[in-house]
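Task: complex structure prediction.
Instruction: return structure tokens for all chains below.
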Amino acid sequence: GAVVSQHPSWVICKSGTSVKIECRSLDFQATTMFWYRQFPKQSLMLMATSNEGSKATYEQGVEKDKFLINHASLTLSTLTVTSAHPEDSSFYICSVRKQTDTQYFGPGTRLTVL
Amino acid sequence: GDSVTQMEGPVTLSEEAFLTINCTYTATGYPSLFWYVQYPGEGLQLLLKATKADDKGSNKGFEATYRKETTSFHLEKGSVQVSDSAVYFCALTQRNTGGFKTIFGAGTRLFVKA
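Output:
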């Protein structure tokens, strides 16, 4: 498999502030990482595909100016939620694709915006 | 478009009972099929996978067979344990023009009582 970490595991912030979430591939150089959002008791929704050294590809309906993604190295991708609001509260999960069709997920980051 | 449908939960079983969680899919081409498991407060973990018709994926006593004729990938376990309590996601991964894309089912929550 592949080992993926996320930091922080949980964060509480005030409305209007920005929050950065890190996703690290610890044992694998990942040219592509994925960011998902999961609402309580719901499935995962793909937000964007993070490509090392280039711009992320966002899914339809996801605001790229609100959810900034930076994939500066083969082991690190960051998701910044800018000017967060309570409706952005969610569980954010990243993943890497090591083989052609198998994903390995991070443990997730729970964001609560007050 | 591609889709995954799995049985609604929650499913509540007694320890050592037989488990079936139904999953059917709609896809063009020949997707790979997966079952992921999510324990409380954690990200998803790959449970098993199958990449072509009639393949059987198995892990930790769980099994699922890729049935192209019925477009199904039902998850089974002969004797569940309390530690199997989690949310189970059926998913397919398909190659498209932009690379690989994964579609998740809505998830089925399993409670196992001692």
